[in-house]
Amino acid sequence: MSKKSTLFFTIVLMILMAIFVVGMVQAATDPAPTNPGGADSSMPWWAWPLILLVVTFVMGILAVLGGVGGAVLYTPIIGGFFPFGMDFVRGAGLLVALAGSLAAGPGLLKKGLADLRLAIPVALIASTTAVMGAMVGLALSDAIISTAMGIAILAIVVIMLLAKKSEYPDVQKADKLSTVLRISGIYHEPSSGKDVDWKIHRTIPGLLLFVGIGFMAGMFGLGAGWANVPVLNLVMGAPLKVSVATSKFLLATTDTSAAWMYLNAGAVIPMIVVPSIIGIMLGSLVGVKILTRTKPSAVRIIVLVMLVFAGLRALLKGTGVWK
User: Fold this and answer.
1) Domain map (residue ranges) of the chain
2) Cα angle vertex 56, ends 72, 46, to 5°?
3) For the chain, what is the HEC assignment?
4) Distance of alpha carbon 210 from alpha carbon 228, whole angstroms
5) Which of 200, 193, 155 has the alpha carbon at shortest distance from 173?
6) pTM (global) more than 0.90
């Protein structure tokens, strides 16, 4: 990690820690502190943020090693096993995904991996439908959201198991829409020492899929990296590295749009958001360092098992079978 990146993370973490401390002081001096989950707890007010910090730290490590976004793990696990209302969890989940995107986005653009011409039409569609999804999510009950999210998480597991990755998709000819929008580019591949010239096809079906992706991102607070990459790579034919980088950059627009809806509704609480972001960011830093020493396939299995368990938990919690 470069000195500039280290300095950036240090400044962000210091700001988040300051907000966290201020939030804890306010909670300590509040004569009648409110519980985000609406349920009484025998634990002291500071215990849940500390537990959240530890859990999200581990989650950040697993997210990097398993090749998934932190919000995909965060929302179902925290929503299923912590006494917080789902609105607060989904709002925090969007900000967790947003923090990672903002940290990685500028570097990916500078390296030429994230492509603005590819990102802009996708971001316009996904961010619009993300706002709609957030409005629907805030209007529905926790039981309905938990049930629907459980089904969505289990579907994500199936997609992750079945979807194959193509490093350099074979796109014989760019379609008319991508040609008009001039969606193409060249990036340097260090492993081969060559410049990769890429273009896309099936632009309209790909953009239509992002209507649903954005809606689900806003409704469930999952982020959208789990779906962005397969659509950009397998459907539209962008190279894998371009797809991953552009997906990471896209979260900064998609999740911001939806997060504003939760912020406006009062569903963003620093006591939940700040330890979550700090834990995920610190865990991601550790995960990057140990990535070369682990077998991704083994970690991926662990992540998939966690998602299956969290998805079943959310589904059973929503249906009232497991409260």
Assistant:
1) 14-22+48-319
2) 130
3) CCHHHHHHHHHHHHHHHHHHHHHHHHHHHCCCCCCCCCCCCCCCCCHHHHHHHHHHHHHHHHHHHHCCCHHHHHHHHHHHHCCCCHHHHHHHHHHHHHHHHHHHHHHHHHCCCCCHHHHHHHHHHHHHHHHHHHHHHHHCCHHHHHHHHHHHHHHHHHHHHHCCCCCCCCCCCCCHHHHHCCCEEEEEECCCCEEEEEECCCHHHHHHHHHHHHHHHHHHCCCCHHHHHHHHHHHCCCCHHHHHHHHHHHHHHHHHHHHHHHHHCCCCCHHHHHHHHHHHHHHHHHHHHHHHHCCHHHHHHHHHHHHHHHHHHHHHHHHCCCC
4) 8
5) 200
6) no
Q: Contact, 287 vs 109, CB < 8 A? A: no
The residues of the chain scoring below 50 in pLDDT are 19-20, 22-35, 37-39
Residue 19: per-residue pLDDT: 47
Tell me, rounded to whole angstroms, the distance of Cα 81 from its chain centroid.
Answer: 19
For residue 261, report the phi and psi dihedrals to the nearest 5 degrees.
-65, -40
